[in-house]
Amino acid sequence: MTGRTFTVVGGGPVGSLLAISLARHGYKVGLYEGRPDSRKTSIYQGRSINIALSDRGWASLEKIGIGAEAKQQSIPMYHRAIHGVDGEMSELPYGQEGDAIWSVSRGGINEQLLDTAEEEPNITTYFELRLMDIDFETATTTFRSKSADELTVAADFAFGADGANSKVRRLAYGLHRFSYSQTYMPQCYIELNIPANPDGSHRLEKNALHIWPRKDFMLIALPNPDGTFTCTLFLNYSGDPSFESLTERSAVEAFFTANFADAMDLLEDPVDTFMQRTAAPLFLVNVFPWSFNRKVGLIGDAAHAIVPFYGQGMNCGFEDCAELDVLIGKHNHDWDQIFAAYENARKPNGDAIAELSKRNFVEMSDLSGDPRFQIRKKIEAKFSDCHPELWTPLYSMVTFSPDIPYSEALRIGDIQNAVMERIMAIPGIDKDWDKPFVMDRLFDLTSEFLETRQ
Ligand SMILES: Cc1cc2nc3c(=O)[nH]c(=O)nc-3n(C[C@H](O)[C@H](O)[C@H](O)COP(=O)(O)OP(=O)(O)OC[C@H]3O[C@@H](n4cnc5c(N)ncnc54)[C@H](O)[C@@H]3O)c2cc1C
Q1: Which ligand 1 atom is at minimum distance from the Cα of 317?
Q2: CATH second-level architecture of 5-75+104-181+282-360?
Q3: Which end of the chain is more exposed for a tag (fewer CB within 10 A), N or C?
Q4: What ligand 1 atom has the least distance to the C-alpha of 316?
């Protein structure tokens, strides 16, 4: 035992994982969640929201010993299944054979982490206590209960793991030299559902992430173990078409029929759901520093809310926890050093995955339906197979290579992009893409670029 205490605000996936890691280093942790305990109440109202977990996330879960169990309740997705507007389908693998991203239940992972946290003797969990205030000099926090009682909690340190709308972060806005910005994306989203077949099987291919790319908007579907798919429609907030312009039932119906004809027979009441639900906004948060007075830190979405187009938000938050875990050992519990090292190590990576995620909307919603983009992906995959020492595709660096920091993936990805622009400009590349001279040219260009841009 170190004898020192932590308050973790937010019992979401990142707060729960952080609490486990701190407790295993000998700290006494109070984990405070504003909402009711989802294991005892039906706060999800039977709706299964799933997300894609990949190697960075799995590495963190394996580290605390729950990776294998979590994987059993998850579904591997080996490729994108792309639905053309005419109903034509194509496939685009995520990586090499066997590489997969995994569809996991967001609530399920959170509950598994809470169960694991509660097995730790050093952790006490509290629900229905919302943070109202924090003293950034002392890490003393004030919470309010459902019955409006106030509770003041003293601790040596505190972390805000309270998500994209973090109260801890908002309270820090008044602090000296705290930089912050919040940027809304043009797109908002609603969730839709594809029910299971009567026998419980999936109505679309199970081991794929389905995408209906339509340039300015898209529909995606991720499988659940119960045979259903959770779908997300990303559409602009304003303009045409948009959540703002589609207000008449007939127009919504026409929109779905024109753009997602093959999904219309599968989706459960898409038009009614569209009419009834309020579209949720997507925004990016960029702040610095991520720690205050070496007493209070920010972690997960509270530090770096990003857009979901790379499927990395939770993966990145889990990686924050893994980095802290290493730094606690490295700096022998000296939190002056740990906070500084943590934000210096993670901030460039948070920025990089924010940028990559923004860019990936274009890749998902536009390019994955574009034949030239698919050729480009095939060239990259073939070259990477022949010269793995020279080329790991950007998607694989981000998703399947936890040893490559996001910031490095972004840097190398920009070099690859410049190279591929030159390759795709070769006359006749659409038909000649698998000829040996293309690989030779790619080899020369890559070697040259890597040498000059090290
Ligand atoms: C549409 C969509 C799709 C996504 N898809 C993916 C994906 O495929 N892959 C991926 O890795 N990520 C994805 N994400 C991102 C992922 O959901 C988040 O990165 C992740 O949930 C962040 O975890 P967190 O614990 O930091 O925050 P949250 O999950 O937001 O948890 C924060 C917790 O803090 C609690 N809280 C808030 N305020 C207070 C308060 N004042 N007092 C006490 N408690 C409080 C909340 O109730 C909540 O339980 C997606 C996000 C969205 C919106």
Answers
A1: 26
A2: 3-Layer(bba) Sandwich (3.50)
A3: C
A4: 11
